[in-house]
Amino acid sequence: MAGQCRTEFRRRHQGAARAGSTVALNRRIEVISSDDAPECPHCDRAGLLYARVPNGWYNAAGARVEGYTGVVLCSDCGAQDLHAAPLISWFHVNGEANDEDREFVRLFIAWATNVFVPMLNEQALEDEIEQWRRDPAASSTTPIG
Hints:
- The protein is of the alpha+beta class and 145 residues long.
- It has helices at 14-20, 84-94, 102-114, 122-134; strands at residues 5-8, 30-33, 49-58, 64-73.
- It has a 4-stranded antiparallel beta sheet with strand order 1-2-3-4, with no helix packed on it.
- Strand 3 (49-58) and strand 4 form a beta hairpin.
- Helix 2 (84-94) packs antiparallel against helix 3.
- The two termini are 21 Å apart.
């Protein structure tokens, strides 16, 4: 995405996150801003917002693997979601993300802490790694999930 910039919500909005959610925000959530609208991976339409949220799973050895995954707020796919719908409405009224707006921060954190992240498809990951080893230029850029 051209002209990307990141907004980190851990430090500056930690108090607002605690007030707006029963989950204390002790992990970093980033909004990735760009001149280009993010593409929804489900419907391929333009999304409203792209964020990186904490995600983790247990590997085959039983150890916890922590990381981040990208998620897109889509006005079509998220319209019926309890946490996405208010944030979608906020975007329709206000236009673009504003991390100085307390209402945006509250709605964003409610969405980001409740967004559904599918389980890792380990076989797809292994297939992608193998494909990359054979030909790094031909490897897919689609998320593995």
